[in-house]
Amino acid sequence: MPRQLHLNAFLMNTGHHEASWRLPESDPYAHVSLEHYVDLARVAERGTFDSLFLADGPQLWSNLAQRPAGALEPLTLLTALATATEHIGLIATASTSYNSPYNLARRFASLDIVSGGRAGWNIVTTAGAEAARNFGLDAEPAHAERYARAAEFLDVALKLWDSWEDDAIVGDKAAGVWGDDAKIHPARHQGTYFSVGGALNVPRSPQGYPLLVQAGSSEDGKHFAARYAEAVFTAQQTIEDARAFYADLKARTAAAGRDPGHLKVLPGIVPVIGSTEAEARALEQTLEDHIVYTHGVERLESLLQLPSGTLELDALLPGELPPEDAIEGAKSRYTLVVELARRERLTVRQLIGRLGGGRGHLTLAGTPEQVADAIETWFTQGAADGFNIMPPVLPSGLDAFVDHVVPILRERGLLRSEYGPRTTLRERYGLPRPANQHVSPELTAV
Amino acid sequence: MPRQLHLNAFLMNTGHHEASWRLPESDPYAHVSLEHYVDLARVAERGTFDSLFLADGPQLWSNLAQRPAGALEPLTLLTALATATEHIGLIATASTSYNSPYNLARRFASLDIVSGGRAGWNIVTTAGAEAARNFGLDAEPAHAERYARAAEFLDVALKLWDSWEDDAIVGDKAAGVWGDDAKIHPARHQGTYFSVGGALNVPRSPQGYPLLVQAGSSEDGKHFAARYAEAVFTAQQTIEDARAFYADLKARTAAAGRDPGHLKVLPGIVPVIGSTEAEARALEQTLEDHIVYTHGVERLESLLQLPSGTLELDALLPGELPPEDAIEGAKSRYTLVVELARRERLTVRQLIGRLGGGRGHLTLAGTPEQVADAIETWFTQGAADGFNIMPPVLPSGLDAFVDHVVPILRERGLLRSEYGPRTTLRERYGLPRPANQHVSPELTAV
Ligand SMILES: Cc1cc2nc3c(=O)[nH]c(=O)nc-3n(C[C@H](O)[C@H](O)[C@H](O)COP(=O)(O)O)c2cc1C
Ligand SMILES: Cc1cc2nc3c(=O)[nH]c(=O)nc-3n(C[C@H](O)[C@H](O)[C@H](O)COP(=O)(O)O)c2cc1C
């Protein structure tokens, strides 16, 4: 069997295109509709995806006029989806900056148990002052500090997830002995950001712990990923950049003493699918026509940390922009956007059109064959272990992908045709179940 | 129609009796089995209960040898149960001492949306040093401080739940206006324990906010309940004590400027049901026979804050015990246990037997008629608005209650025979949907 592609469905409201909610078919309440997400999860499962994924941030984004804002809390929504699906992995975003390790480790272990080992955690450090101000801070913690806290957070969470050995429950009714206290290992963690004394109050879960996913592309982000991540989401505009990123991350993973095969790289793609190329372009155009450009300007100014009113719609970006070093928010996204605009000499209007679909992710507009070809090329030429599929419109874009691209990928032997027996998310991604650090310290993945 | 009884099913592992896990029928993994809880939830729904409830604390209790420890995180489990049920309310315990208001308010709003308005929150301040040490503290915060933080936590949560007006989503596709920013009200809270700037990142939920439940019986606890709670769980051993508690809490609620009918008092009862009284006593005896008394002594010493080794199994409690004032943990439970032992001149062994079933809640052992009679008496004589049903063994004890006691209560016109149309948890308890403080400040419940 040839190497298998991994597919993740990135679900978001009415779709990844910022104007998708304005299409006639779209439900303005989709973002809080369980039914909407149940339908999407089932379509993804029909397409034998490895997993589905929900982004998140603990703040109300932007202003409400522009587009759907707010969302169901991801772990809550994924728990409901766990009961509506059987095989697909369930990856929730949660912030290391604005959670405590004890509560979050417990919640992921609980989802992992309830879903039969299908939980994943997209670990984010959360950029932005709005989030900080919801948690008692005046301003966003510095980028490096956020990643330092994230690393300690993971160390604590791993201690907690390993605090019960797998066979700690004895259940000896005759002797009146329910569990073996020798198999419980309190965290006893005293660090810079956290002090956590006890063992977790839930047994070790089917996967040991959730699949660890990460999406930071800055230096700090890649360093973190190499150490902890099992799957990495990334936004890449060209195959050259994607190959360089891929090679870099695999090398860093090896350098961190891990098997580079145990970290899967998944670039995001926005598939805009038509039965002809012209049809795909027309759909793209329809979406662009629905963009409200004044909103786009505001958001771009915010990303580039420029004063409001700096950008002109039909001009290029200003020649002088701050270096990535000066950005405390999403560093790598900043660089990607600036490079895209410079490389293709895009006006602000054109740049907003390009970002409207995928906020920096690659748009692939074309026929199912063209999309499948691009996927195969990236996959076989060292740019990806799989993809984060970000349909511009939901549910129609996911339907189109599953009905028209998936069969081609299956025909080419790149994607499973059925799930087979139930298994864990980590097994779907071809990863081993992690050993418990208290049982086989030498085998511990991290 | 006569006044209607409210019933809440307090679900816990293999049952409330500490020895229930040792019975042949019990599953030692019940506490982490979704199927076990789905079955229980469906039985409770068959019995047209108003709600079900999960207790919780963010620490691993006691030692593992004694009895099942750890549990699925309640909001996670209740989300899964929301998809398996249609009518029953879902009350999760969460701590104000070890959560941040932004995250917790979001999670309850999300459960409320996903369940169609069936979420409830049992607000606890969490006694004990073990929990404190999982969240960066060396010791448990003082009782009064925990309640002061709880009050501010509620004020912030209420601001967040009201931060979206009900009609903030406009969905005007033609104009490209999704929401009305004038209907968003950032929390802008700066207090002693919390500072929270923004609006919640989820729209106002079907109930406005979850049903607010509380279970503190100390002075601070009752003060808090009078101000915020819509339902109160309580442990009462005699109808006289229960009536005094009921009258006191209703008076306090009126004094706080609220309608005392908008706070429902639900004492806990442990129904031990047999087709004859002798059969019920025999079941009680079987359970007592499975108690491991050395464990009971350890737990009693811990509750009474006595050095290990102080208590003797066949002696009375020591004559000198600290006053409730000196207790920083669960004050009211302490007093209840000491008074029970003194009133009935129980030896330590007898006291442990009595506490084994309900940890201080009233055990009603008898025929279905006897249990129904006691329920009716308490309900009609000013001691209760309903009950927190705590079966000693699960699922059998809940089955017995639903199959044998519920029909009698229905016959007597005290309990609905069917749910009727889907409705919110708050409506089940006969409570109004709270007004949004930003729309009708004069109508706000709290
Ligand atoms: C596909 C993808 C999904 C992401 N989802 C989230 C998210 O849900 N929440 C969040 O705060 N950041 C999210 N990020 C941002 C990353 O976590 C990270 O902050 C960003 O890529 C910038 O990386 P850096 O901080 O290392 O520069 C996402 C990034 C990518 C590529
Ligand atoms: C039926 C019932 C359920 C309770 N559940 C919890 C719980 O899940 N977690 C918790 O920390 N405390 C729980 N408590 C304890 C109360 O929140 C409270 O701490 C206790 O009754 C002592 O009250 P006081 O602190 O006001 O004296 C419960 C109490 C009762 C009566």
Quaternary state reads homodimer
Instruction: Give the total of beta strands of chain A.
Output: 13
The chain pair with the largest interface is:
A-B, 78 and 78 residues
Uncertain residue ranges of chain A: none
Measured by DSSP, the beta-strand proportion of chain A falls in 5-15%
SSE order of chain A, one letter for each helix or strand: EHEHEHEHHEEEEEHEHEHHHHEHEHH
**Any guess at the CATH architecture of chain A?**
Alpha-Beta Barrel
Which distinct ligands sit in these coordinates? Answer: flavin mononucleotide
Q: Specify the helix fraction band of chain A.
A: 25-40%
- On the 0 to 100 scale, the average pLDDT of chain A is 94
Total helices of chain A: the number is: 14
Which geometry of chain A do the CA atoms define?
A: globular
First-residue to last-residue Cα separation of chain A: 30 Å
Strand order of the largest sheet of chain A: 1-2-3-4-9-10-11-13
Pfam family, one (chains A, B): Bac_luciferase
Family (chains A, B): Belongs to the NtaA/SnaA/DszA monooxygenase family.
GO molecular function (chains A, B): monooxygenase activity; oxidoreductase activity, acting on paired donors, with incorporation or reduction of molecular oxygen
Domain Luciferase-like (chains A, B): 28-383
